[in-house]
Amino acid sequence: MPFSVKDLPFAKDALDGISAKTLETHHDKLYPGYVNKRNEIDAALPNADRSKANGSYSEYRSLKLEETFNADGQILHELYFSHLGPNQGQQTRPTGALAEALDRDFGSFEQFVEDLSACGMAARGWATVALDPTDGKVHTFLCDVHNQGGVWGTIPIMTLDVYEHAYFIDYGSARPDYIKAFFKNVNWDKVSENYDKAQQMAKISGTASMA
Ligand SMILES: [Fe+2]
């Protein structure tokens, strides 16, 4: 079953500080490219010649390499767009279990924002927040490209896209201003929902009991 492009959960002109023009490029043009290429690769893989697989160059190697690039590009963009939303009276910070986890693992919500912002300044692609079932803690991870920097077994709950395409139309090279705008548009109810689901997945996987 081919993967399909997911709609934005908000109107393109609804965000404060992330423009409709940016979203038209980012969501409508760039993101579908990853979905379409993932489908193209999935269709080509069954016919790739396994007998010629080679670490320097082979059709099979190229397809497998770009499979992870496009799959992670799809997954990270869908996470990013899913927890953005118009800041019309919504929570400006998380509550409940997520708030407690961020206090526990980062010291305070403000320290979490400071750390994720720093990760976003240091990364060339993504700053991603994930629950690690092996220690039960929330971590930030730095990814320079879609398929580099993710930690296997961790469950992503939130991500900050810091590729230039995410902000250059609105802010030029002023990435700190974009990161501030990003936090103004986070739907914390959605991130909390992601955290609750991640906790359930961690319990099902059983790896938390090994910590
Ligand atoms: Fe992006």
How many individual helices? 7
Q: Strand fraction band? A: 5-15%
CATH architecture of the largest domain: 3-Layer(bab) Sandwich
Mean of pLDDT: 95
Query: Which ligands, by name, code or SMILES, are bound?
Result: fe (ii) ion
Shape: globular
- CATH fold descriptor of the largest domain: minor pseudopilin epsh fold
Structural class: mainly alpha
Instruction: Please describe the biggest sheet, giving its number of strands, its sense, and whether it closes into a barrel.
Output: 3 strands, antiparallel
State the CATH class of the largest domain: Alpha Beta
Strand order of the largest sheet: 2-1-3
Task: Please provide the ordered H/E string of secondary-structure elements.
Answer: HHHHEEEHHH
Task: Work out the number of β strands.
Answer: 3
Low-confidence stretches: none
Features:
211 residues; mainly alpha; Helix Hairpins; minor pseudopilin epsh fold; 2 domains; 50% helix; globular
Topology:
Elements: H1 20-44, H2 59-82, H3 96-106, H4 109-122, E1 126-132, E2 137-143, E3 155-161, H5 168-171, H6 175-184, H7 188-205
Antiparallel strand pairs: 1-2, 1-3
Helix pairs in contact: 1-2, 3-4, 3-7, 4-6
Bound molecules: fe (ii) ion.
Fe (ii) ion binds at residues 26, 30, 77, 161, 163, 165-166.
